[in-house]
Amino acid sequence: MAAWNLTDVIDVLEAAYPPGRAESWDAVGLVCGDPAQGVEKVLFAVDPVAAVADEAVEWGADLIVTHHPLYLRGTTTVAATTPKGRLVHRLIKNDIALFTAHTNADVANPGVSDALARAVGLTGDLVPLQPFADDPWRGLGRVGDLPEELTLGEFAAQAAAGLPATAWGIRVAGSLSRRVSRVAVSGGAGDSLLATARAAGVDVFLTADLRHHPASEFVEAGGPALIDAAHWATEWPWLDTAASILTARGVNVETRVSATVTDAWTRGY
Ligand SMILES: [Zn+2]
């Protein structure tokens, strides 16, 4: 018999990632699963996709915790006629619950961007790039310093080495010889934080999913250098933080961080 049930595990996760802090458009929390079911094995992954479900079934997971929601915009059916419906069927048939912590994990302290900042080599104090008005220690993105000044090229190589490998790797906009020490990062799509990063006076902003026009205009205007990494890779470092929270709170479950690369882009040429 499992000593912990799903409700207990969710209580711990929601203490770290309060659902009330999620964006209004977001869909976080329990997607499927019986709150009374026992939980012995918890798999952490970025995306609730078929490859992750395969891994969960094979390993015998009772719960998958993902960063991305399965249904962000709602649905009227979970019939197994769609990929998401098939996923729901697969999980329920195998007694696997699914729980998501998305924007509420982004803004937490420590949250998604703290883990990203550490992965790319920021070692000192970190502050939110866009703090909440009512809490300066929580919010989107993080700003911090490198332990020593690097060239942009050196920092890019260090960031690439610190993040899990993906088909495309990372892209850099700016002179590679430029000196950088103050860095802003934001896990996932960071387009909306470009102006905030410029106002923060950082030397480089590392995020994902940057588009041509916003990036081009930003660099033309003399903004900080940009590093665009794979969306999945920028959020993956957080999985270990989330798994550690269960361990640190004494939740007696086995945890595993999925190494399955679920970035949308599977090959670069
Ligand atoms: Zn994301």
UniProtKB/TrEMBL annotation:
<dbReference type="InterPro" id="IPR002678">
    <property type="entry name" value="DUF34/NIF3"/>
</dbReference>
<dbReference type="InterPro" id="IPR036069">
    <property type="entry name" value="DUF34/NIF3_sf"/>
</dbReference>
<comment type="similarity">
    <text>Belongs to the GTP cyclohydrolase I type 2/NIF3 family.</text>
</comment>
<keyword id="KW-0479">Metal-binding</keyword>
<dbReference type="Pfam" id="PF01784">
    <property type="entry name" value="DUF34_NIF3"/>
</dbReference>
<comment type="subunit">
    <text>Homohexamer.</text>
</comment>
<protein>
    <recommendedName>
        <fullName>GTP cyclohydrolase 1 type 2 homolog</fullName>
    </recommendedName>
</protein>
